[in-house]
Amino acid sequence: MASTVRYPIPPSFIDFAFKLTPIVIAVIGSLFRLNDYVFSGSLLRAANLKSCCDTFDFIIVGGGSAGSAIAARLSEDQSIKILLLDADGDPNPFTYLPAGVIQTLKHPETDWDYKTVPQNGSALGLVNQQVNFPRGRGLGGSSNINVMIYNRGNPRDFDRWAQVTGDARWNYENVEKYFHKIEDYNGYWSRSGYHGKGGPLSIESVNYAPGLNYVLDAAKEMGFEIRDMNQD
Ligand SMILES: Cc1cc2nc3c(=O)[nH]c(=O)nc-3n(C[C@H](O)[C@H](O)[C@H](O)COP(=O)(O)OP(=O)(O)OC[C@H]3O[C@@H](n4cnc5c(N)ncnc54)[C@H](O)[C@@H]3O)c2cc1C
């Protein structure tokens, strides 16, 4: 009797297919403009405001990264009433997919879709020499449409703000502790001494980056050091 030979699907293929799914969804979504259907269900929380809450201790205009962080911190005191206002509603599901950013850029519910003024010496190939300048709109703001690279500001910018304002509290040396405090860091560089644990912001290294090693090897070969990008 002939035996049946089974060819199991290699686990590495299943893993690959699983990780590719969000990218496929985002690309198909782009092609069929699925975001138009998803966005049309966007909920404006203002509609849910109860008449009980017509006075507030704090009104925060702009529910992006900064406004939301301020609201979250203030709300730790439950006796405080806070109104967090934004120009649009809840984040669209595509904002949860890194590749979903394609869906959100230039969409009127998630992107203010600014353009720079016409440039003089650059953007020579662009219409009117104007560069697209996306800024996020709706709860989450630009964090909904960014590409999730955990990149702190340049220490020299902080030092310069301290100089310009005459307020030494802006020096990077003084603000760095707040970067540590906000982090729950679980990335490659945990031991670099530049990160914190237990804060509200979870940071991880990307767990699927096909081909990344080739790029890093090439960079090393050219003499670049591979290190924590948030290091001094
Ligand atoms: C396309 C893109 C990619 C990026 N990639 C990265 C990255 O990989 N890594 C990184 O570190 N940073 C990245 N950034 C930058 C980062 O996302 C922003 O610096 C950060 O989110 C800004 O936070 P914010 O609170 O200052 O402003 P925002 O998050 O922009 O929030 C401002 C909020 O105010 C609201 N608002 C504005 N005017 C009004 C009004 N009149 N009434 C009510 N609400 C209003 C807006 O709708 C918005 O929600 C990226 C930004 C963009 C646009």
Automatic annotation (TrEMBL):
Superkingdom: Eukaryota
Gene3D superfamilies from the UniProt entry: FAD/NAD(P)-binding domain, Glucose Oxidase, domain 3
Matches recorded under InterPro entries: FAD/NAD-bd_sf, GMC_OxRdtase, GMC_OxRdtase_N
Residue ranges of domain Glucose-methanol-choline oxidoreductase N-terminal in the record: 136-159
Keywords: FAD, Flavoprotein
PROSITE patterns: GMC_OXRED_1
Cofactor(s) this protein requires: FAD
Annotated Pfam families: GMC_oxred_N
SUPFAM superfamilies (UniProt xref): FAD/NAD(P)-binding domain
PANTHER family xref list: CHOLINE DEHYDROGENASE, MITOCHONDRIAL (PTHR11552:SF147), GLUCOSE-METHANOL-CHOLINE GMC OXIDOREDUCTASE (PTHR11552)
The family this protein is said to belong to: Belongs to the GMC oxidoreductase family.
Protein's name in the database: Glucose-methanol-choline oxidoreductase N-terminal domain-containing protein
Higher taxonomy: Eukaryota, Metazoa, Ecdysozoa, Arthropoda, Hexapoda
